[in-house]
Amino acid sequence: MWWYAARRILQTIPVLLGSTLLIYALVFLRPGDPIRALFGEKPVSEATLQQVREQYNFDEPFLVQWLLFLKGAVTGDFGQSFTGRPVIDLVADAFPVTIKLALMALVFEAVFGIIAGTIAGLRKGKLFDSTMLIVSLLVIAVPIFVFGFVLQLIFGVQLGWFPPTVGGDPSFYNLLLPAIVLGLVSFAYVLRLTRSSVAGNLGADHVRTARAKGLPEGTVVRRHVLRNSLIPVVTYLGVDIGALMAGAIVTEGIFNIPGVGNLAYQAVIRGETPTIVSVVTIMVFVYVLAALLVDLLYAFLDPRIRYA
Amino acid sequence: MSQQPLLEVRDLDVAFYADKRAIPAVRGANLTVYPGQTVAIVGESGSGKSTTAHAIIGLLPGTGRITGGEIIFDGLDIAQSSKKGFESLRGDQIGLVPQDPMSNLNPLWRVGTQIKEALVANDIAKGKDADRRVHGLLAEAGLNDVERRARQYPHEFSGGMRQRALIAMGLAARPKLLIADEPTSALDVTVQKQILDHLDGLTDELGTAVLLITHDLGLAAERADHIVVMYKGHVVESGPALEILKNPEHPYTRRLVSSAPSIASQRLSSMRAREEVREQAVQTAGEIAAEVATAKEAVGKGEDDIIVVENLTKVFMLPGDRPWRKTELRAVDDVSFRLRRGTTTAIVGESGSGKSTVARMVLGLLDVTEGTVRFDGYDTSQLKGKKLMALRRQMQPVFQNPYASLDPMYSIFKSIEEPLATHGIGSSKDREAKVRDLLDKVSLPASVMRRYPNELSGGQRQRVAIARALALEPEVVVLDEAVSALDVLVQAQILELLNDLQAEMGLSYLFITHDLAVVRQIADDVLVMQDGKLVEAASVAEVFDNPREQYTRKLLDAIPGRDLLTTA
Amino acid sequence: MPKPTLPGQERYVAPLEETPLAAVDSVQVDEAPSSQWKEAWKQLRRNPMFLVSAALLAILAVIIAVPGLFTNSDPQLCELSRSLDPASPGHPFGFNFQGCDVWSRTLYGARASVAVGVLTTLLVVLIGSLAGAFAGFKGGWVDGILSRISDIFFAIPLILAAIVCLSAINNWFPERAFWGGISAVVLTLAVFGWPQIARIMRGSVMEVKNLEFVDAAKAIGAKDSRNLWRHIVPNSVSPVIVTATVSLGIFIVAEATLSFLGLGLPASVVSWGNDISEAQRLVRSGTRLGVMFVPATALALTVLSFILLGDAVRDALDPKAKKR
Question: What ipTM does this complex have?
């Protein structure tokens, strides 16, 4: 198990390096003057251009630029946003809010997804299952921002149960509605995954053996069906953290939540590509590390790997 | 003895429901089991034997229902019991030992915990008391170092150990009736015997009645007092074990008895038939040898020993416990033998013996680490290009798994035609004629050409695989467990076909198998392998009548039902 | 010494009329030949999910080909004077903020949105299948490199990558027309979407290459490359087909989300994503919600159809149902 962990951790390093290189290359590797192009059509002074050039080390060859960028990333120096504040400060302020939001979404999708998926899997083909199937399909088929607006309108503006925008007070209650919106699509996937996992395991040989021992059905489901069904779901939740990061950009934008996603959202609206690059890089780092943790947790949970 | 039967099944009907239609699986089955007795249900796949057994314990798969009849257990009809009713019966009244040890244990729980569950659920013991009992049960089932083993997970056990754990689980709550569903089919033959012996002893001691489900008539006769033979859902014959074996009356039972390898192989008639086949094959092969020696495109000098293997070794490098260390696995260690033209050499061994690895090296599908393989005088590793293609024409395989040996996307015609097309033989009209001819040789109707593998049964697919192997008119056919996955009757048919083809075409066979009983019907010489090494090499008669090595003797002893016809 | 038989265990032989013997292992000659794919098709035909989705997609195809069948208005003909006018004859859902016919725009918008989905999927399947088949077949270091590369791509969630890419592209080429805009989105999504298909194809190939019919082909003398294309790949495509079908729907949704962020198709292109995002500001006031709902429903129904289709195809190709 320890060798699995060590190998997995070692694998993460080229991934982190490679992904930052990729992001950097996407934006900066092009003919012409990339810095000028970053500003697009906006009028910009030569002084600002020069400042940004220095910031991104454009006098150096590309790979060196990237390495310096990387060094900056590791030391926390992401340069400055167009408003003048260091990006890292902005991110540091905003991150806790996003983490709170993402965790709430994760809990929502995991708890409700697993419960609904289990019931649906146990009663495959019946009313609850068919209903859940339709609900999950609808949730996946409708873009997240549509849900955001509709729910914001119904529950925020018309019914007034939740504040329509969060603004400066990211309290637990205020974040509830946005967290649900953020976790909706993932909830649908967790539901589908749990459902097929449970339905598949119900017919498994070891479940039949458990019944043959004389175990009551409830015990059989709890100890032999559910436990085995959760493993793919745990794996999925790890991958989902990345989707939550992406979704946060939209959700925080709609509900005006002062998180990292909103930072990115504002940067996108304003066309501030350098800030976008920095924020996305941080998000990717967080995602890769979180996925690593989940993988290690999974290795711990599955005795076939733990006691290989 | 005025004993009451423990289990009486009367006119049992079981059906499976697919798309609202009922497909009967068991029709009017009758059987009786007395306390402490062992009764065997024997049948091929689709006979309904497993379905009957599962119906008794209330574990029919979701779409199955008992549609008629009674199951009287200990005086009460349980056929229409509720779920809760069956739950209370299972474990402490009726126990189950299932077939496949790997898939029947939950990989996420420790073995000891899973056995403990049986004790707790049936109110036998709890907590520390239960733990102690678990150790006792594991020891009873024949495991050593029980305290450590109880804390391990299923993947850390070997196949035989897992089966023992399942036996411990089945007997944990001391049921009156134990249903053993092919309890050892997935295991090596020597392990099978050990475990069945142990199970016999245990159930005798505990006074447990056993309902043994098996496809092996020899095994049933050896282990049971009373046999029930099932065919297509009906009970066709039942009675005392030895009587059925010696005087089968129903035509199906007769077929079974005449085809079952362990029993058939003891009869002189099958040995004589083999002699005739060999004589004819050797003669035809000699004629072909003379042709080959002069032909330019063929690879071969016309020698008598068509395959000569010397000091063949294969070493696999496997990842070790540390990333930079690798462990060596000697799958084949210094094996040498000869295959004479027109004869069959069987390589026999259990899993891990290296027999299949030898076959793959002879075929050239796997690189050799050391040693040489000579085909009719030429070293196969030196052949390239055209010569290698010629070699391929002269040596062809038939593999074990009928469901994987044909490309599901290719029609039967295309599958058999492929070798001809690859070697550019004949026009497309010629090829079609050839395919028809081959299908005829393997006794399949020509209309099968347009069909696809998923429409054929396992035995039919193997025939197609044989036809494909013969398309290039090879001299040697390597049969890697080619009949192991087939039902007994179908197996007998295919073996007969192989014998006929050998006589007609002068083929030489390299026959890989784990089943020593089959060997007598098809082989002339036998090589016994264990852990990569060659343990004994002799003619079939010598190996069966006068085995030299202890391992060979062990293998022979393990053949179920071997001594039945000679003793009693 | 033979034991006396107990009651119920006497010698019994079933009468032959009740238990006739069939020939061992005979072939059925009467039915029409049916391959795996035919069997899958038969099962598919009976699946209500398939029928519903196929019907919806058929209607969609007609709408894309000849939208003029369903409306007479020109989607680009917008008059500010008609801004937010309610429904009227010939304009079943009224007009949007710019004064364009909502119904007509929704019908014509199908082209762009579905084009993004279809083109992206085609590219993703092409690149992903080739890469995955090659890696799965060769194994060894080739596979190792591909796995590392796809790990790197996987580390960046699709939408994030698309955001970075497209915001850069937006700055480089602010003026984009129909095909320029679509290419940008398609290429961006495809570049980050192919690893998923590659991984699936790789897994499938690795399973299939060990099956015995591949060995049989080798033993005949077939070369490796021939084996790969004729035997291995055709048997490996099923999971790819299923995933690709579902992915098509996901890509359409992704385009809409990118449009919401201003990064999708340029505003000059008639697309569902653009219409929905533009209509969003109306949602705050709670009036004329139809302007958002009509394109949103169209999008949802389309994506739903693809996902349903993918599910139905997966059920039909389920290996457990294939074996006799």
Answer: 0.84
